[in-house]
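Hello forum,

I keep getting stuck at the same step: I have a sequence, I want structure tokens, and every attempt I make locally crashes halfway through. Rather than fight my setup again tonight, could one of you with a working pipeline run this one for me? It's a single chain of 104 residues.
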Amino acid sequence: MNLTTARSARRANEIGVRKVVGAQRYQLVRQFLGESFGLTLLGFVFAVGLVELIGPSFDAAFSTNLDVARILPRSAPLFPVRVQSPMLRSCENRHTRRSDRRSD
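Reply #2:
Ran it on my machine without issues. Output:
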């Protein structure tokens, strides 16, 4: 059993428990997209911090002059938000349309 299979088995168990407790599909989707967004943002912050930390020694070792501010535009920290927020809005819109249909 590899790592992905183990994670999916654990996720399936978690989904089952949450459904039994009464979670709706949109709530599960929102949770998983939120977790994905959080991990993406955390990874981005970690990567930029690592580049800032290791950058000077990299520049000295390879005789380069890499500047993070020059490589990344000022809006780069918002990149994960720009990518994933439309997905979150799409899920909410689908849920709203479905609940509107059911109320008729």
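The CA atoms of residues 41 and 80 lie 6 Å apart. If your local run keeps crashing, start a new thread with the error log.
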